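Q: Give me the 3D complex with glutamic acid.
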Amino acid sequence: MTDLPTLSSFRRIVIKVGSALLVDRERSRLKHAWLASLAEDIAELRGRGVEVLVVSSGAIALGRTVLGLAAGDLKLEESQAAAAVGQIALARSWAEALSHHGLTAGQILVTLDDTEQRRRYLNARATILKLLELNAVPVVNENDTVATSEIRYGDNDRLAARVASMIGADLLVLFSDIDGLYTAPPAANPDARHLPVVEQVTPEIEAMAGGAASELSRGGMKTKIEAAKIAAGGGAHMLIARGEVKNPLRAIAAGARCTWFLTPATPASARKAWIGGSLEPRGTLVVDQGAVTALRKGKSLLPAGVTAVSGAFRRGDAVIVAGPDGREIGRGLAAYDAEDAARIKGRSSGDIPAILGFEGRAAMIHRDDLVLGAAPKA
Ligand code: GLU
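A: Here is the predicted complex, encoded as structure tokens.
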């Protein structure tokens, strides 16, 4: 059998916590003691230099009782109203729980567009990475109050997987009320067998998921399998584990039963493949020899090194980077629209506000958004 990874081998982990874990069904109250134990686990990881981001559900479950909404399915506006109320309590509880360990929480509410539209995606990514760099723990949820049915995830499993690939996490942990994937939904099938590892999500694996979800959470095993596919595409392994126990991360490290979904990719290789291979370039930036040398050393592309701009690209679009001889040396995501890029080319980054009238990014292409030599030679 494949050697399974250990928790301690990961550098950037996204932890998804479902409503059923965080909210007490009977009293519709937040389970503070459990949250405190998870915060303790997170602090332990942070103490070892691991970056942690939380995707937390629970806004709707918390808000619905406060508003006196009856049990059962909510109408869209009702869940939006419930989320508006519950999100305040949810974020405050996370901030308090983390603060006991000297950790700062930063709330990020995203919509489907924020993760699917490249331009907005880059903004959300930059904010989250900055929070991590500043040692904060980002706590993410869907912005349910404004997300209508056609434009929302609705479940935090897939949202968490998108966030994981967006920020280049190497592990996504889905804490659930079940300890992993079974050959069939175990509640209805006493013979269902637990799978400790899934090397690849095949149609057979998908068929095992069934559709069941618990009363408080929206996603069942189906959305978790979808999440596994998204995470794998982004170069992150994924883990489904039972979250109900106190100190659930410690429990995984101690060998609690769970299901690993593995990927052969890494966040870096997945991002390279995405930028270098699957995006259609919309323009070209020609750079001088000094810039070529700097880029080869792993630096970002600054406007000063750009000598010519062509094409009609928008911020976030893929562009070709060509050397002084016009030959492609790489591809990257432009931090400026073509018109603005043309206005700041050859200029120092400090002049950008004066030229454009707004404070843009210092780099024309950030080094994380740049892939050298990955594209086929022209
Ligand atoms: N965003 C929803 C909430 O916070 C939860 C979605 C889910 O259960 O996955 O209530």
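A quick observation: The chain has two domains: 7-271, 279-372.
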